[in-house]
Amino acid sequence: MRIAIFSWEYPPFIFGGLGVYTVNMAKTFVEMGNEVSIFSLNYDSREIEEQGKLTIYRPSFLDTSSIFPLIASEELRGWGPHIKFFTDVLNYGFLSALKFIQLAKKFDVVAIHDWLSAFAGLILKEELRVPLAFHLHSIEEVRSPDGSETVKRIEKEMGKKADQIIAVSNSMKDFLISVGYEEEKISVCYNGCDPKVYDPKKVDTELVDELRKKYKVTGEVMFFIGRLVWFKGIYNLVQAMPLLLRKHPKAKLVMVGQGWDYPKLMSMIKKLGLQRKVMVINKWLSEKEKVAHYALADICVFPSINEPFGIVALEAMAMEKPVVVGAAGVSGFREQVIPAGKRRTGVHVNGNDPKDIAWGIEEALTSDAKRWGKNGRKRVVKEFTWHIAAKKTLALYERL
Fold first, then answer.
1. 242 and 123, same structural domain?
2. Could you please report the per-residue DSSP string of 162-173?
């Protein structure tokens, strides 16, 4: 098939799981014999890049944030400096849709990912009779219950116009139905992981030793990687550390990521006097660095308050690490991580509760965590590879 993917995240700019998804799914689609065109937001990158059967389009645009408030709603004007992000997304949508139409190429399906690409999807659905799948990795009600009404309207309208809605977990599907999305349109297709990359046998041991010295590790290491935003449970995770340190005084928490809550997080760490116990690396890691951090960890902790899927849990399990995950609210972690029995891979906790997070980490530290890790890798290889995800997604596209 000829597949057009609209995703605002794509290298050289990756902000979170959507970027990881787009890179790996596009690559896998091509490996399976399909032709893929990606339309992504331009952050001073080349406008067109060809890589065999994969082509990336990044239309350039002007900064319109200074004039947009003249016509914007009161709510959008309230975004303050963040209104530039909204106008960038708006321009990306308009110009990507125009580029798509100008190509005059016959595509079999258009894949729109989240509201950030929905402007393009809504335009194309009006202008062309093209099968359109709307991938929802999250929605505004999950990210922030009191969030933007404008974003909610954009998501709902794209859901109405789309021929197919693809949710990343059953938990996400159930939530979509509960807030008014059409049940008959929704299918579930999990994200994936590459166990050939996230492989404990392919670790740079010298890099791991360097990290051990850098973080002055003398005891247990807990590892978190993800966006530094409140709904990832970052504040509750830090608040769990004093409770954990009572029994494990040499333990350290290593947190990696970027996000708007970074300053507030650092302030909390300082207030609790945890500067030597909680290390925050405010950047995105290369894949090699990420693998080394997973290898360094004893336990991987992702106590999200809401997490429609969460690729990081798959990466950790592929690295044979036991995982402690937030399982309250909308949680794809619940469907990945087995919390009991012979096939156990980790612990489910309430990401809203620091005491429960501390309990979950303690449970992992004092249990047969190595067996959980072995189980986790087996589970990823059997059920959660990118090839499996791509095969199921292509089947949905073929129906369209």
1. no
2. -SEEEESSHHHH
Backbone dihedral angles phi then psi of residue 39, each to the nearest 5 degrees? -115, 115
Residue 394 DSSP label = H
Which residue numbers in the chain have pLDDT < 50? Answer: none
Select from 308, 304, 311 the least CA-distant residue to 353: 304
pLDDT in the model for residue 24:
95
Using an 8 Å Cβ cutoff, are 261 and 229 in contact? yes
| Same domain, residue pair 75 and 169 | yes
Structure tokens of 74? 């009161």
Measure the CA dihedral 310/314/315/318, to 10°.
Answer: 170
Q: Which amino acid is at 180?
A: G
Tell whether 187 and 233 lie within a shared domain.
Answer: no
pLDDT computed for residue 17 by the predictor: 85
Report the phi/psi class of residue 259: left, alpha or beta, with left for phi > 0 and alpha for psi in -120 to 50.
left
> Cα–Cα distance between 281 and 1 in angstroms, integer?
41
pLDDT at 13: 83
What pLDDT, on a 0 to 100 scale, did the predictor assign at position 344?
96
- Residue 55 three-state SS: strand
Contact in structure between 113 and 40 (CB atoms under 8 Å): no
Question: In whole angstroms, what is the distance from residue 151 CA to residue 86 CA?
Answer: 10
pTM score, whole prediction: 0.93
